[in-house]
Write a structure and sequence with these properties.
Elements lengths: L13 E3 L5 E3 L12 H13 L1
Antiparallel strand pairs: 1-2
Length: about 50
C-alpha cells in the first residue's frame, strides 16, 4: 500500500440566478468520501481475508 497525498482541484461553474441564488455545478461522478478507490479495495480485502 502506498500512502501519499493526492490533491485534486475541481473548478466548478457557478451561476447567479435572477433572484440572487447561487447555483454551483455538481462534482464529477465517483467522488464520494475522503479516500480513493485503492484504499477501499485494500480495506475490503483485509476484512474479507481476515
Amino acid at each position: 500500500m502506498i500512502c501519499r497525498p493526492h490533491t485534486v482541484l475541481y473548478r466548478r461553474e457557478r451561476w447567479l440566478t435572477p433572484d440572487g441564488r447561487a447555483v454551483v455545478a455538481e462534482l464529477p461522478a465517483g467522488n464520494s468520501g475522503h479516500f480513493g478507490a485503492a484504499l477501499h479495495r485494500f480495506v475490503l480485502a483485509q476484512y474479507l481475508g481476515g
